[in-house]
Each structure stands twice: as structure tokens, then as C-alpha cells.
Amino acid sequence: MKSAVFLAAAAVLALTGCASFKPVRVQPWQRAALADATMDPNRDPLGRQMAEHISFSREAASGGGGVGGSGCGCN
Amino acid sequence: MSQPHRILVPFLAAVLQAAVVCPAAAQTKAGDVFPSLAGAGLSGVVPDSAGKVVLVDFWASWCAPCRASFPAYARLQSQYAPRGLVIVAVSVDEDQSDYDGFLRKFAPPFSTVRDQGQHLAAAVGIPGMPTSYLMDRSGRVRWVHEGFHSGDTEPALRREIELLLSEK
Fold first, then answer.
1. For labelling alongside B77, which of B46, B106, B127, B164 has CA 20 to 30 A away?
2. What is the pLDDT along chain B (168 residues), one digit of tens a residue?
């Protein structure tokens, strides 16, 4: 009985949430700010290299530094 | 599990799953009728495209592939406009100054308009920047292309334009 009540409550919550829920997605035509050069994490390669060096020295880890380009999602 | 639960639990689980998968926004695709450019509230002169093959390209000054696309569209314009192709480049720039600066730099020989409220872009549901839509003479979308890849996109566009221009 408890599981049924829990599922019923979850279903009601999910349904009402879907009725008014608009997924937060920055649309392709809204990405002007994301496409700005300042959003590129690699715009200062030396500074980034130093920050990564500090990071992996402190965290005892390396790699996984991200992907190229900024955030406009073009192509 | 008692008899009511045996029915109730899977039913509720299915409802929950259906509720989580919310419907996505509609995107204009091949076969659809493209919204009227004249009634879209665009700033700039919308060319008369009745009975012509129309290429509508959504671009922005901040979009790097869009810069590569403009010289290609200029070549297409000079080659195919006499045969009935109309190119309309729709900018989604929010700032007029960005739009003006881009046009000063590239001086495109085809029509450019600005969707200042980004209403047309939202209505069409463009999947990425840039995206181009090629319409046949009846105004129906026949080809949708997302992005612009130098070397690939222009030949593909030429093939599609040739095909549509040959249709009566």
C-alpha cells in the first residue's frame, strides 16, 4: 500500500510539474553571449595551463580538461 | 502483492514515465509550409518570392560559420538569381549595431532582414546556428540544413537548388 501511495504522489507531482514545466534550454538564436570570446575557457592558454597545473597538483589528478570552442553550439 | 496493487502499481509507473517525457518544441521540417516572411514582422525589405525557389538562412553576427556562409550565398545568388532563386538572410541579432557592422563588412548581394524579436526563429524552431531552409516554388520546405561546413554545404546546396529550379 505504501509503495502505491508513494507512486501515486510521485505521478501527481510529475504530471502537474509537466503542465507548467518549460525546460530551461538556451535556444540556438539566444546564444550571442555564450558565443562571446570571453566564454572560451581556452582564450588564455598559458593561464589555463597554470591553473590546470595547480589543480592537478592539489587534487592529484590530471586530464579531462574539456573541449574546444566556446558555447554558441554553432555547427 | 494484493490484486489491486498488481494493477495499480504498473499503471502509476507508466503514468510517471509518460509525465517525465515532456513534449519537445516543434521544428519546421521538410514537407512543412514555411511561415510567411511578409507577416513575420521582420525589419528590412522582404523580397517578393511568389513562385520562386527561396533559400532562407538564419544567421547572426556572433556565429562563426555564418561568416563562412555569406561568400557562398553570394556565389549562389549571382549564379541562380536569374533563374528564379531568392535568398533571404534572416539575422537573429539582438543589437542593430552588430547587424549593421556585419553587413558593412560582407556587403551581401542578397536580401537581408532582421528578426529583432526573434519571433520567426522561435516559430520555425531552428535547431542550430546557422540553419537554412530551401523552399520550392509552392512555398513548401524541401530541404533543411543545419550548420555550414566549408566544402560540403555549398555543393549540397547547389544540388538541391538545381533540382528545385528544374521543377515547374
1. B127
2. 555 566 656 655 555 454 444 444 589 999 999 999 998 999 999 999 999 999 999 999 999 999 999 999 999 999 999 999 999 999 999 999 999 999 999 999 999 999 999 999 999 999 999 999 999 999 999 999 999 998 899 999 999 999 999 997
Task: Please tell me whether residue B56 adopts helix, strand or coil conformation.
Answer: strand
- In angstroms, the CA A17 to CA A30 distance is 25
The B-side interface with A (CB below 8 A) comprises 5, 8-9, 12-13, 15-16, 19-20, 22, 58, 60, 62-66, 92-94, 98, 115, 118, 121-122, 126-131, 147-149
Phi/psi zone of residue B118: left (φ > 0), alpha (ψ -120 to 50 degrees), beta? left
Whole-angstrom Cα distance, residue B67 to residue A47? 29
B22 is catalytic: no
pTM, full prediction = 0.73
A15 touches chain B (CB under 8 A): yes
Provide the β-strand partners of residue B87.
B55
Distance from CA of A44 to the nearest CA of B (A): 19
